């Protein structure tokens, strides 16, 4: 049974005539008559006694009435609960984000967000793996790596370029300046992140993969960042993975004189462009505000 037919059935039962029901629903009388006939055909019973002057429920119509009210009430409740443009933000935001970005950027913004929207909950999956958000039933993925081909919807939230940095203790020990040439990289120890064992650099506008050397290699951003802070050498990480350390002075950013860093971005990935829940929109607005206030230029 279609909920539209149920609503028309209830309107006719309440009004006592097809024309009155049509006026109440702003539907043509002919359409009301057709929908009632379709519902009777589907159920295989007559729902109304009709004469030229009156209409009344049959015994079968009386039996259907409480079920029809239940269906109509459930439909209206579902629409109020699920309609994306509802004024209140509610429900559980299910999202995934890279481990370091999630810990350093996403987690600190959650208390204020949840305080502002008390009917909203968050289910956060921190993982450096690319998770199938459709298969896992997630609302959103925050990704900081280059995106591959996908049918998912993605938009840029903030720039996130690679940066070369090192601890002050390392720079002091090696007497290294904060500006380098490509050739200088051959004389430095580097902390390497798998699988970025060759550093992507733009030389004369062309992307090159530069081989560097180091005694420490790790497969997690957090481990590489920790090793760099401990003074094991230069490292190359995405800006938002070291933004806090650059701000505090735990790491110092180095500039290359004869090359540029490859530009990456923070991406918001959703399963579809349509019917995006309000909880996703308010989260992304908050995230963008946080990243703008802590922008690279500042």
Description:
- With 298 residues, the chain is an alpha/beta fold.
- The chain has 3 domains: 80 residues, Winged helix-like DNA-binding domain superfamily/Winged helix DNA-binding domain (Arc Repressor Mutant, subunit A), CATH 1.10.10; 97 residues, D-Maltodextrin-Binding Protein, domain 2 (3-Layer(aba) Sandwich), CATH 3.40.190.10; 100 residues, D-Maltodextrin-Binding Protein, domain 2 (3-Layer(aba) Sandwich), CATH 3.40.190.
- 40% of the residues lie in helices and 25% in strands.
- It is built from 9 helices and 16 strands.
- A 6-stranded mixed sheet has the order 8-14-7-13-9-12.
- Strand 10 and strand 11 form a beta hairpin.
- Helix 1 packs across helix 3, helix 1 crosses helix 4 and helix 2 packs across helix 3.
- The longest helix is centred in the N-terminal third of the chain and has 24 residues.
- It is rod-shaped.
- The protein starts with a helix and ends in a 5-residue tail after the last helix.
- The relative contact order is 0.14.
- The mean pLDDT is 87.
What is the share of helical residues? Answer: 40-55%
CATH class of the largest domain: Alpha Beta
Q: What is the CA–CA distance across the termini?
A: 59 Å
Q: Total number of β-strand segments? A: 16
Give the assembly state of these chains: single chain
> Numbering strands along the chain, what is their spatial order in the largest sheet?
8-14-7-13-9-12
Q: DSSP strand (E) fraction?
A: 25-35%
Q: What characteristic shape results from the CA principal axes? A: rod-shaped
Total discrete domains: 3
Structural class determined from secondary elements: alpha/beta
N-to-C SSE series?
A: HHHEEHEHEEEEHEEEEEHEHEEEH
Question: Main β-sheet, in a few words?
Answer: 6 strands, mixed
> Any idea what the CATH architecture of the largest domain is?
3-Layer(aba) Sandwich
User: Helix count, per DSSP?
Assistant: 9
In terms of per-residue confidence, which ranges show pLDDT below 50 for 5 or more consecutive residues?
Answer: none
């Amino acid at each position: 049974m279609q909920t539209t037919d149920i609503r028309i059935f209830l309107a006719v039962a309440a009004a006592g005539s097809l024309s009155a029901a049509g006026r109440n629903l702003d539907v043509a009388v002919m359409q009301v008559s057709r929908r009632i006939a379709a519902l009777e055909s589907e159920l295989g019973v007559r729902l109304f006694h009709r004469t030229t002057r009156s209409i009344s429920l049959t015994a079968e119509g009386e039996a259907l009435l409480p079920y029809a009210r239940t269906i109509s009430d459930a439909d209206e409740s579902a629409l109020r609960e699920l309609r994306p443009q509802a004024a209140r933000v509610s429900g559980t935001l299910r999202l995934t984000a890279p481990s370091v970005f999630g810990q350093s950027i996403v987690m600190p913004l959650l208390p204020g967000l949840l305080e502002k929207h008390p009917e909203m909950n968050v289910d956060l999956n921190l993982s450096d793996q690319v998770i199938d958000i459709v298969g896992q039933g997630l609302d959103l993925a925050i990704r900081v790596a280059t995106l591959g081909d996908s049918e998912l919807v993605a938009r840029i939230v903030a720039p996130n370029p690679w940066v070369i940095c090192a601890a002050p203790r390392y720079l002091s020990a090696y007497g290294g300046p904060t500006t380098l040439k490509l050739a200088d990289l051959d004389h430095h120890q580097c902390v390497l992140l798998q699988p970025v064992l060759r550093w992507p650099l733009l030389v004369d506008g062309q992307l090159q993969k530069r081989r560097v050397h180091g005694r420490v290699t790790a497969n997690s951003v957090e481990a590489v960042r920790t090793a760099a802070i401990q003074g094991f050498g230069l490292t190359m990480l995405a800006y938002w993975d070291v933004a806090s350390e650059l701000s505090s002075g735990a790491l110092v950013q180095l500039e290359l004189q004869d090359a540029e860093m490859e530009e990456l971005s923070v991406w918001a990935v959703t399963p579809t462009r349509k019917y995006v829940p309000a909880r996703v929109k308010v989260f992304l607005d908050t995230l963008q505000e946080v990243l703008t206030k802590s922008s690279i230029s500042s």
